Amino acid sequence: MGNTIEGKVAFVSGGSRGIGAAVASRLAADGADVAITFQQDKSRADDIVERIRWQGRRAIAIQADSADPDAVMDALNGTVAEFGRLDILVNNAAAFQAGPIEQVSPAELERVIAVNIQAPFVASQAALRHLTAGGRIINIGSNVAVRAAFPGFALYSMSKTALIGLTKALGRELGPRAITVNLVHPGATNTEMNPADGPMASAIKDLTALGHYAEPSDIAAVVAFLASPEARYLTGASINADGGFTA
To answer: Name one Pfam family in it (predicted).
Structure first.
């Protein structure tokens, strides 16, 4: 299935680790040049860039705090300045917060909203100056927006639920321009933030139809499909890539 997006340019926010890194690598394997953003760990971002270059594609890493709208816009514009175009936007960067609602601080509330809601909106605005017919916007949500199975996820669930509305409304608005907008809701995925052998793993697996965590590459495969020409008639959709957690 390689080279389905040969010559395209993709932008993946939060692409230095976890699902974002897997998405960046998969899109490169399918033929895209890729820009990723990272907040702090330059060495990890550089590792992803090097991996993509070994795949024969161009890649850059841009340091940007997704909570800062100016940084988000500058990163998108910097990508176009480097590669000359933009075809695929993957809004992946996220701020995670869990705990009783009474304990959520104003600063936590502000940051989660800024990273999980404001940044995808601002990135989409900036991307639309460059996306043409066949362009793709792919938002990364969470299955807790569909099923809040555990207490303590009010803020995070709220922030990811907002992406459902953004995806539907943008899908409708951009349809006449042949730009598709879709949303992937990952379930439990084996990353540093939520390892498959972590303290919540047993309970999560019990609620998952397939009985195990996803690997980041599983989520990247769904994103790659949505980025491909084969997904040209899919827009405004939410896909639960969660092993049946929300079934």
So the answer is: adh_short_C2
- Using one digit for the tens of pLDDT, what is the confidence trace for 66-107? 999 999 999 999 999 999 999 999 999 999 999 999 999 999
Q: Read off the DSSP letter of residue 116.
A: I
Residue 80: in which H helix or E strand, if any? helix 69-83
Structural domains of the chain ordered from first start: 9-239 (3.40.50.720)
d(CA 216, CA 23): 8
If phi over 0 gives left and psi between -120 and 50 gives alpha, with beta otherwise, what is residue 18? left
Tokens 């793709």: give the residue: 136
Which residue type does 112 have?
Answer: V
The pLDDT tens digits for 128-175 are 999 999 999 999 999 999 999 899 999 999 999 999 999 999 999 999
Say how far residue 60 (Cα) sits from the centre of its chain: 17
Q: Is 233 a catalytic residue?
A: no
pTM higher than 0.85: yes
Kindly list the strands in the beta sheet with 9-12, ordered across the sheet, starting from the edge strand earlier in the chain. Answer: 59-63, 33-38, 9-12, 88-91, 136-140, 180-186, 238-241
Catalytic residue among 83, 156, 213, 245: 156
7: tokens are 């010559």
Cα–Cα dist 81/179, whole Å: 21
**What's CA 116's distance to the chain center, in Å?**
10
List Cβ neighbours of 1 (8 Å cut-off, separation of 6 or more).
30, 224
